Amino acid sequence: MGIVIKQSIQNTVTTYIGFVIGAINTLFLYTHFLTKEYFGLVGFVLSTANIMMPLFMFGVSNTLVKFYTSYKTKNQQNGFLTLMLFLPLLMIISVGLFGTLGYEWISNWLARKNSIIKDYTWLIYVIAVAMAYFEIFFAWSKIHFKSAFGNIMKEVFHRVCVMILLISVYLKWLTVSQFVYSLGGVYVLRMLIMTIYAFSIRFPKVNFNFNFNVGSVLKYSFLIIIAGSVAMLMLDLDKSMLGLLVQIDNIASYNVAIFIVTVIAVPSRAMHQITYPLTAKLMNEKNFKDLSNLYKKSALNLLVVAGLLFILIIANIKELYTILPQDYSQGLYVVIITAIIKLLDNLSGNNNSIIFNSDYYRIILFFGLLIIMVAIVLNFIFIPKYNINGAATASFFALSLYGILKVWYVNKKFKMHPFSKKTGPTLLLIVCISLLFYFWDFNFDPIINIVFKSLIISIIYGVLVLRLKLSNDISDIISRIITHRINK
């Protein structure tokens, strides 16, 4: 776990820096510098681009990680990398031609409930392409176990740019419309910078002599399109359907609520950057003993870290909403239900990596189609009745089912699961502290209340984690930090 812990910490720090910047943008700049209608438009454009992105990527980012280490010769690697570079163009060009021919119909259909969407429909395509190739070149760097720079670009760069653009709107250097178009330029620029970095690690030598099993690579890539689409649909389907079924300004409130709980997913995202290629390596080597150990440790460590973040959000959410504009206060239920989803997702550890890098990745096709159908049906039922609360409820049921199916399947095929004897006590600790501090408020200013309560919670939780020895890895890290500070 040494390399996992080291790079996960680096990525976690970077991700949290990005989160802090994103929090300033989402909770304060967007809510004060843009109208709810335009904030909702930004959410719709980015969410719809995210949904299209896996299709354009053609599963290449996952395919790179799974197959690259299995090719030992330079000739095979060059041929493989060449295929990975050009494969996404099949979808990108095809969809581009279809979109050009049917642009008027597509834009009218997307804008039938909210006319503001029509003029920005083409931007969804541009951002989706930029997102797709960014992820491909990020994977290009990850297969060489160099994820730090890519994580900065993924988590920090575009948020800094957005902050600058929002301030420019406030200073009247940009109109709101120019801001939306400039946002697309930020994603294109991010892709170009990531391309240069990836090529600096290994510049591609174009080789169309594919002396490897192209069929298995293409089959895997095709099925991973479904898997990637499921992941993106589960993240952004609700926002897109809100834009299609209700007034677009509701997405602004939903955006704020979802962003608040995004912090719980940060440890998983950071650890995933390194556990994914490591899982692929262990799978290729058939080292299932170490893989099972990685599975349990990653799940427990993520649960402990995410548990603290979950508690802090639940305990402080009422005070936080008193700080935000009154128009956004309807998202309290969304925060709570989505926080539970994120916490349970951390409990599954590197489950996704195991399935995607195994010979059983085809099951994602079935699970994916099932969950997408469930989510779409539930959204159509719940959103018209309960608005953003309905979208959150639909996501809860769909994602819970998806997580249960994946954990069950890995256990069935590999006889391993993410649970240990420390899982139960950790969950019990999280629930007890959450309930205690949700109903316990101090009669202070909301900001002072949040700071004071968070400090108390962090100390209590940290002490109990150490005393109960819930995670050896986390205890060792804390001990080394304390020892270093004392010696210093």
Could you characterize the architecture of this molecule?
- The chain has 18 helices and no strands.
- By secondary structure, the protein is mainly alpha-helical.
- It has one domain (2-487).
- Helix 8 (148-170) runs antiparallel to helix 9 (176-201).
- The longest helix has 52 residues, at 363-414.
- The protein starts with a helix and ends with a helix.
- The mean pLDDT is 84.
Features:
18 helices; about 80% helix; mainly alpha; about 500 residues; single chain
Strand content: under 5%
- Sum up the overall morphology in one term: globular
Structural class: mainly alpha
The description of the largest β-sheet is: none
Protein name: Polysaccharide biosynthesis C-terminal domain-containing protein
Organism: Lacinutrix neustonica
Membrane topology: Multi-pass membrane protein
Pfam families: Polysacc_synt (PF01943)
Strand and helix layout:
Blueprint: H1 2-33, H2 36-57, H3 60-67, H4 74-86, H5 88-101, H6 103-110, H7 121-142, H8 148-170, H9 176-201, H10 214-245, H11 249-284, H12 288-323, H13 332-346, H14 351-356, H15 363-414, H16 423-438, H17 446-468, H18 472-487
Helix pairs in contact: 1-8, 1-11, 2-7, 2-10, 2-11, 3-4, 3-7, 3-10, 5-7, 7-9, 8-9, 10-15, 11-12, 11-13, 12-13, 12-16, 12-17, 13-15, 16-17
